[in-house]
């Protein structure tokens, strides 16, 4: 045999006897002069027992759990057994927790790191074959096993597992190389067993390279903790392994993996039929090729939505608005870090530049379990449980636990932790599962629904003159300002805001969601409309028909409607007349700077009556409005028919420059700052989010007045103040 390391993987269904076969084959190879390393890849970690006098080894994974990387030593897990055979056990988690496949990957990385193979000519990997996850497929990756043996009896499930292994090989090799070395038939003495295995072997085109008889020799070996070669007698059984070792040492013939389709397998094994291997007629493509063909580019008429963020991120960003809750991200540190940035960055900007911070965004009650390698392999529920128990000692309004990709993949059972809930503090599991649960918006939806289902009381006492505010924008400079505006206006009418679902409210406020007779939708985004429909259906919530009002006219109508609903119309009218007096006073102060100015505007299709009203109140004139109708909806820029004469639908910029040259406006407004050619004018952008209330239009008029003043006086000394106010 030329001196080249040979790596062999023995796969077989659990309990089929592959550890016994592996150990006896290792012994036969060692007896023939090979230096053998046997690696047990079954979480049961008993592969090398026969080589170690019946003793067991510390597993690689147990060792890695307790020893820091810089102190790792190969000899802590590598022992020399019978025939100087090197023995290693990968180990794995307890059944039902963690990810054994990930454990195998970790163990292989350890062996690579420590050059464990360097002193051996033959490696034998003893692998569980009825597990189909990627971790158990590691030994059949190209950089490991040169040849794969299938250990099977004549039972259908054992042959089913053998067929699955062939599928795994084919998936890795794409039918381009030959690594199947044959079948090791470990007989159980079942009736018709040999015929079943032979039919299977013929159908998949593999030889039966060894027939291991049913024999009491193996029980004797088990009792003694020795391979057959170390026992007296049993020559027939020993010969099986000696011959196989000779075959291996003299050069194996390797075959293409040609698995059967499930129906063909049943036909061959159970009904005695013959079948051509399905995969031979139709080769299984490489995983990458598969991804390409099964994931075609979207047809032009089916635009695919981009995937923004992950459900974990969306759920965590939402849950922190429950201000007295503690949110625990069951995630690696990196996931929590990105989410933390997402939550706190807008808050920091607000804090420093505008004084309109959202408290939850500045210092969210947010922690992570810092899932690492150990939890990914052995399961992370215990670590999470300990963290939840510590959190409960602090008596927060709720403890919300959210799963990430890793905890979702290893199947950590978050729901079981809800049993830790105390009378004061519910534990709420949000199984977002990272990107497995969908994108950012899916996470928001899941979190809102879960929090409502777990907290909202259906028997909450009714509180008159109370509204809830539903669906505030999470990341916007206006959100907190709008809330303050609404609170002030409603407060003057004797109406209070009960719950903000979900923007900085307490668990108790959410419990009492149904106390409010009326709900106000913050915006009419598609997601908010869906949330509204859900609350109406699930809880019978009643909603005001519109959303929060922008501009003088809309705010007046809105308050009158609330006045009618709550029986406080007089308070509404008194408030409106006070606000109107203030509004008129400011309009008059701005008029000298703005009156007669002609405005040309390009905009997307959104209702801008608040802006048109305010400009007209100041004596300004819109000479042309070009609408980029991205949403392909009916043009909806104004409620007033007389304005429609100046509105045109446009598709690009050329027409805008032409209109500017023709109409010579004083101001050009657009949704972005690009300045078109065509004349002398002041350019400004339309705000992406508009403040609600009577003063929406005043905020832009003040700014235009300043722009016009500076233009007239040629002075820009107020730039710094503006910058801080509007752009910083
Ligand atoms: S996609 Fe998964 S890994 Fe990435 S941040 Fe989300 S939870 Fe973490």
Number of strands: 21
Which fold name is given in CATH as the topology of the largest domain? Rossmann fold
Mean of all residue-level pLDDT scores: 86
- Report the end-to-end length measured between terminal Cα atoms: 75 Å
Q: Which consecutive residue ranges, at least 5 long each, have pLDDT under 50?
A: 278-306
Mass-distribution shape = elongated
Q: Can you count the helices?
A: 26
Superfamily at the CATH H level of the largest domain?
P-loop containing nucleotide triphosphate hydrolases
Helix percent reads 40-55%
Rounded to an integer, what's the Rg over CA atoms?
A: 36 Å
CATH architecture assignment of the largest domain: 3-Layer(aba) Sandwich
Class inferred from helices and paired strands: alpha/beta
Major sheet size, sense and barrel closure: 8 strands, mixed
Strand order of the largest sheet: 3-4-2-5-1-6-7-8
The amount of beta strand, in percent, is 15-25%
Bound compounds: iron/sulfur cluster
- The CATH class designation of the largest domain is Alpha Beta
Query: How many domains is the backbone divided into?
Result: 4
Describe how the helices and strands are arranged.
Layout: E1 6-12, H1 18-31, E2 36-41, H2 60-66, E3 79-80, E4 86-89, H3 100-113, E5 122-128, E6 147-152, H4 156-173, E7 180-186, H5 193-204, E8 208-212, H6 216-224, H7 235-250, H8 262-270, H9 278-281, H10 287-294, H11 311-319, E9 325-330, H12 333-353, H13 359-362, E10 366-368, H14 373-378, H15 381-393, E11 398-403, H16 405-409, E12 427-430, H17 440-455, E13 466-470, H18 479-492, E14 496-501, H19 507-511, E15 518-521, H20 526-539, E16 543-547, H21 552-566, H22 569-594, E17 598-604, H23 609-617, E18 621-628, E19 647-650, H24 654-663, E20 667-670, E21 682-685, H25 696-713, H26 719-727
Parallel strand pairs: 1-5, 1-6, 2-4, 2-5, 6-7, 7-8, 9-10, 9-11, 11-12, 13-14, 13-15, 15-16, 17-18, 17-20, 18-19, 20-21
Antiparallel strand pairs: 3-4
Bound molecules: iron/sulfur cluster.
């Amino acid at each position: 045999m030329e001196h080249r390391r040979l790596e062999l993987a023995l796969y077989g269904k659990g309990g089929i006897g592959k550890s016994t076969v592996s150990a006896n084959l290792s012994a036969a190879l060692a007896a023939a002069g090979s230096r053998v390393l046997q690696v047990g890849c079954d979480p049961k970690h008993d592969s090398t027992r026969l080589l170690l006098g019946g003793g067991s080894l510390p597993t690689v994974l147990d060792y890695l759990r307790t020893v820091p990387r810089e102190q790792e030593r190969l000899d802590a897990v590598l022992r020399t057994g019978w025939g100087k055979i090197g023995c290693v056990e990968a180990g794995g988690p307890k059944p039902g927790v963690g990810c054994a496949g990930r454990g195998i990957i970790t163990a292989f990385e350890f062996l690579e790191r420590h050059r464990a193979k360097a002193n051996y000519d033959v490696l034998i990997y003893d692998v569980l074959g009825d597990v189909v996850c990627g971790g158990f497929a590691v030994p059949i990756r190209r950089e490991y096993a040169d040849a794969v043996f299938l250990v099977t009896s004549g039972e259908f499930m054992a042959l089913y597992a053998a067929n699955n292994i062939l599928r795994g090989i084919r998936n890795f090799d794409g039918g381009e190389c030959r690594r199947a070395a044959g079948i090791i038939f470990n007989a159980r003495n079942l009736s018709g067993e040999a015929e079943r295995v032979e039919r299977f072997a013929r159908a998949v085109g593999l030889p039966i390279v060894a027939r291991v008889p049913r024999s009491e020799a193996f029980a004797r070996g088990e009792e003694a903790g020795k391979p057959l070669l170390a026992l007296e007698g049993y020559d027939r059984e020993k010969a099986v392994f000696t011959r196989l070792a000779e075959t291996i040492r003299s050069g194996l013939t390797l075959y293409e993996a040609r698995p059967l389709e499930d129906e063909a397998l049943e036909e061959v094994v159970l009904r005695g039929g013959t079948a051509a291997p399905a995969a031979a007629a139709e080769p299984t493509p490489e995983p990458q090729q598969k991804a390409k063909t099964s994931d075609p580019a979207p047809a032009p008429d089916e635009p695919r939505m981009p995937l923004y963020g992950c459900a974990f991120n969306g759920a965590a960003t939402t849950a922190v608005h429950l201000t007295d809750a503690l949110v625990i991200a069951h995630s690696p540190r990196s996931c929590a870090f990105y989410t933390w940035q997402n939550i706190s960055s807008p808050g920091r900007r607000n804090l420093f530049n505008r004084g309109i911070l959202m408290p939850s965004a500045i210092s969210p009650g947010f922690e992570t379990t810092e899932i690492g390698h150990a939890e990914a392999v052995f399961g992370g529920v215990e670590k999470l449980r300990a963290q939840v128990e510590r959190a409960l000692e602090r008596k927060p309004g709720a403890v919300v636990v959210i799963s990430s990709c890793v905890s979702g993949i290893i199947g950590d059972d978050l729901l079981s932790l809800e049993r830790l809930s105390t009378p004061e503090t519910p534990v709420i599991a949000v199984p977002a599962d990272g990107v497995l649960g969908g994108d950012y918006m899916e996470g928001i939806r899941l979190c809102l629904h879960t929090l409502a289902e777990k907290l909202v009381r259906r028997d909450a006492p009714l509180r008159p003159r109370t509204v809830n505010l539903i669906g505030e924008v999470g990341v916007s400079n206006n959100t907190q300002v709008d809330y303050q505006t609404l609170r002030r206006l409603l407060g003057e009418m004797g109406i209070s805001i009960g719950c903000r679902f979900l923007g900085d409210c307490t668990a108790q406020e959410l419990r009492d969601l149904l106390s409010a007779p009326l709900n106000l939708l913050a915006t009419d985004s598609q997601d908010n409309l869906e949330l509204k429909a859900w609350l109406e259906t699930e809880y019978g919530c009643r909603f005001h028909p519109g959303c929060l009002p922008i501009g003088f006219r809309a705010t007046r109508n809105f308050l009158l409607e609330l006045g009618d609903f709550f029986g406080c119309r007089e308070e509404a009218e008194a408030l409106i007349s006070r606000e109107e007096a203030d509004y008129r006073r400011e309009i008059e102060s701005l008029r000298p700077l703005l009156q007669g100015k002609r405005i040309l505007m390009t905009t997307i299709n959104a209702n801008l009556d608040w802006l048109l009203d305010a400009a007209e109140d100041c004596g300004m004139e819109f000479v042309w409005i070009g609408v980029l109708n991205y949403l392909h909806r009916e043009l909806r820029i104004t409620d007033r028919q007389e304005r429609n004469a100046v509105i045109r639908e446009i598709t690009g910029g050329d027409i805008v420059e032409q209109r500017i040259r023709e109409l010579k406006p004083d101001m050009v407004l657009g949704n972005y700052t690009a300045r078109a050619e065509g004349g002398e004018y002041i350019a400004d952008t339309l705000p992406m989010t508009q403040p609600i209330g009577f003063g929406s239009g005043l905020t832009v008029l003040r700014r235009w007045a300043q722009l016009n003043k500076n233009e007239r006086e040629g002075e820009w000394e107020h730039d710094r103040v503006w910058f801080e106010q509007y752009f910083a």
